């Protein structure tokens, strides 16, 4: 969620302050953004790990998921000592809510700026810049909320696994692609690779 928040701020600066983009999003700002994402990920992981080790498990300890997701772990708890995990989840939910509000404010400013653009071509370029990221944000939040709020079932369906993949695998995979394919240097490199491959196949 922190990564999506940083990316939404980047899109906000690119659309609302295009002439000052390179000044605002300088190297130090990018480094601070990356450090924020990494540190938030480490803190989240450490808190969940500590809360998980405080839980006593019983039964066959079989998780019907391809990774140790919180709802699946809580199903295996045999006592009321999972209150620590609920506390961690509540705290991280609060942080995620702040990130969600930040993303919403960024995109409200973006759409307000885009709709005031006199040129249809300018509006199209602006929307093409931010809509792929907005799609990833909506996909991540909607599937994550559905996965965590629905009651865990004893016999997970294919839909459960699909939703988990959609919020854990797809957004991190799409993020680099969204940014890379909009980079002129990356586009030129891809064209060169495809031309060389085409020439090799024709030979």
Automatic annotation (TrEMBL):
G-protein coupled receptors family 1 profile domain boundaries: 1-179
Main subcellular location of this protein, as a coarse class: membrane
Keyword Cell membrane: yes
Topology of this chain in the membrane: Multi-pass membrane protein
Keywords, ordered alphabetically: Cell membrane, G-protein coupled receptor, Membrane, Olfaction, Receptor, Sensory transduction, Transducer, Transmembrane, Transmembrane helix
Protein location: Cell membrane
InterPro entries with a match to the protein in the record: GPCR_Rhodpsn_7TM, Olfact_rcpt, Olfactory_GPCR
Keyword Acetylation: no
GO molecular function annotation: G protein-coupled receptor activity; olfactory receptor activity
Transmembrane segments: 21-43, 86-105, 126-149, 161-181
GO CC terms, sorted: plasma membrane
Pfam family, one: 7tm_4
Gene3D superfamilies noted in UniProt: Rhodopsin 7-helix transmembrane proteins
Top-level lineage group: Eukaryota
PANTHER family xrefs: OLFACTORY RECEPTOR (PTHR26452)
Protein's name in the database: Olfactory receptor 14J1-like
Lineage, uppermost ranks: Eukaryota, Metazoa, Chordata, Craniata, Vertebrata
Gene label: LOC102826369
